Amino acid sequence: MSMILSASVIRVRDGLPLSASTDYEQGTGVQECRKYFKMLSKKLAQLPDRCTLKTGHYNINFISSLGVSYMMLCTENYPNVLAFSFLDELQKEFITTYNMMKTNTAVRPYCFIEFDNFIQRTKQRYNNPRSLSTKINLSDMQMEIKLRPPYQISMCELGSANGVTSAFSVDYKGAGKISSAHQRLEPATLSGIVAFILSLLCGALNLIRGFHAIESLLQSDGEDFNYVVAFFLGTAACLYQAVGTYGHTELSQIEVILLWNI
After folding, report:
1. Which residues are in the Longin domain (predicted)?
2. Cα–Cα dist 169/222, whole Å
3. Which of 112, 120, 185, 238 has its Cβ near the most Cβ atoms within 10 Å?
4. In whole angstroms, what is the distance from residue 212 CA to residue 204 CA?
């Protein structure tokens, strides 16, 4: 029999449960899924806003919006369109009932447990598809799921974190991509841009001084050739510094640049 078994409302940033249905079945498979609920709640900030996890005879679906995630457990044969329509109803009601200030400042688990009354009523409706089909329009949800299907979380991804934060590699239509931090360059910071510009300016200044030193050397014997070498070495060092700054910059690099011109 296809049906919704339970649902939870969870804060995304720290996985704090805000509300949940209180009628969990006690079967072994359902109890195992409760563990997956907890594991997923710790990873919500890393995941797309619409996901599905298949766990044997059960599916866990969730959506996230405005810092809150709505998660549900259903049998594997429960229709996707009904599952996400159910979650969408929970989301709309929760946003209407509670403002963001309350959800952001909540410190106790299940501090909105009274929302379970709405979860229970909605779950009963969605577990009776014959009466449900005449009350809601599923065409919009069907189109949305077709255009932007939920990301399928693998058990391998879920089990990869044992107290260690890991990034998911996500690639699916409409959901974007999330890459590991070490596989992409970080955007340039203000200090990096400043150091890069200073490196180029100091390199140009040393180059000009080098040419002036050559002119002085040719006009008189008083100019030491070492000054010419020093200025051109300074130019090379600044250009090298600029290249290094382009990829990664530390504040101490600015000090190194300035030392060449003392």
Report:
1. 8-119
2. 65
3. 238
4. 13
Q: Are strands 170-172 and 176-178 parallel, antiparallel or unpaired?
A: antiparallel
Say whether pLDDT at 66 is over 90.
Answer: yes
Tokens 């140009």 found at:
204
Instruction: Collect all residues with Cβ–Cβ distance below 8 Å to 108 and sequence separation of at least 6.
Output: none
Task: Name the pTM for this structure.
Answer: 0.60
Per residue in 92-102, pLDDT (tens digit) is 999 999 989 98
Q: What is the pLDDT of residues 141-184, one digit of tens each?
A: 888 888 899 999 988 877 654 443 444 434 433 444 433 333 34
